[in-house]
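B., you asked whether I could sanity-check this one before it goes into the benchmark set. Here's the sequence:
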Amino acid sequence: MQVDKARILHESLARLAKLVHGEGLLLQPFKKDRAICLVALDGAVRILERGFVENDYVVDAKKIRKELKVLCRREFPRSNKVWLKRLSPEEVLEYFPGANEE
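And here's what the prediction gave me:
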């Protein structure tokens, strides 16, 4: 589903709260040439970033709001709409091979 950039922070945090361990939330601009994937863990969120910057790190669930705000500014600087998609654990591996290596 497409979400207005002004509402992306609110929508993604609300959907992230409903995810179970291993499920993910994929954020992409209209062209779908960059991506941010938020994978729910127990008390933390794993961030897989593929775009201007290639990153893979874990953030405490309490700090995800600030981190997501920074990520959206960096990866979607001129986007007005952002695609938001819920991913199963299998789909996370499909989009980001090697994502569950820990």
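One thing to flag: The radius of gyration is 12 Å. Otherwise nothing jumped out at me.
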